[in-house]
Amino acid sequence: MSYSASDLLNLSDSQLDDVFKSGTVGPIPNGEADGRAILAPDTKFTHEIASIVNIFAWQGKTFDAQHGTLTNRISSLGVNAIVAQVYVGPSLFDGKDCIVLDYSKTSLLAKHVRDEIRLIAPQLYLGLVYWDTKRTIHFSLQFGVV
To answer: Hey, is 16 helix, strand or coil?
Structure first.
């Protein structure tokens, strides 16, 4: 099944987990991606929370595949900050390969954060966020938005 970033907001946690499991590593992305935090999945609040987070806190990520890094676009101004190393490695979720977004050596603020992403549709990645080894939320990254 092909998904859009909006479709993901209508799925439950377990459905999102299934979509992540069925995703592929795909190429390490390059360029700017629009992000959506998926909080309170499959509730009447999911879309509103995603919009509020997107406006005031996190808009997405900008990848530099050549250097294996990314920055997050944060605040209502879309400031590029909070750098992560990007590489392919085993997922904490299921042990299969994923693209790891590792903040442990690049950010004092986010040193306990690890994101994992898998390609689930053309130019669309589904991600998991970890605090140390505790899984917290899902998110999506959509590339090629004009």
So the answer is: helix
The H or E element containing residue 20 is: helix 13-22
**What pLDDT, on the 0 to 100 scale, is given for residue 55?**
65
42-61 exposure pattern, b = at least 16 Cβ within 10 A, e = fewer: eeeebeebbeebbeeebbbb
Contact 59/74 with Cβ under 8 angstroms? yes
| 24, 35, 39, 93, 99 from 13: Cα distances, Å | 19, 18, 9, 13, 20
CB 121: neighbour CB atoms within 10 A?
A: 18
- Which pairing describes strands 97-102 and 79-90: parallel, antiparallel, or unpaired? antiparallel
**pLDDT less than 70: residues of the chain:** 1, 53, 55-56, 77, 146
CB 64: neighbour CB atoms within 10 A?
Answer: 15
pLDDT for 44: 76
